[in-house]
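Q: what sequence does this backbone want?
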């Protein structure tokens, strides 16, 4: 069931200084607050909208020169920012 290289893995011992640092970090208040944010289903819709806007201006299939690439990314950001606060279109 286990591969031979898996058996050679050495785990941290509880008296190891690295283990103590790891436990302190995991039990720290800032880490627990960040973990709490991650466990409640963070919605990535806004980021996906921005990425789809980038794909409209900067295709992955074309190798752009750096000035052209930068200009296209800036256009995508401007277009996205212009439409961020637009109200959704509601059909009849």
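A:
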């Amino acid at each position: 069931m286990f591969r031979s290289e898996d058996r050679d893995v050495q785990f941290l011992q509880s008296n190891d200084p690295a283990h103590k640092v790891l436990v302190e970090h995991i039990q720290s208040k800032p880490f627990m607050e960040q973990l709490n944010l991650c466990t409640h289903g963070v919605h990535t819709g806004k980021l996906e909208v921005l990425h789809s806007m980038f794909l409209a201006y900067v295709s992955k299939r074309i190798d752009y020169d750096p000035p052209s690439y930068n200009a296209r990314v800036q256009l995508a950001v401007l277009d996205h920012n212009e439409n961020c606060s637009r109200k959704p279109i509601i059909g009849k």
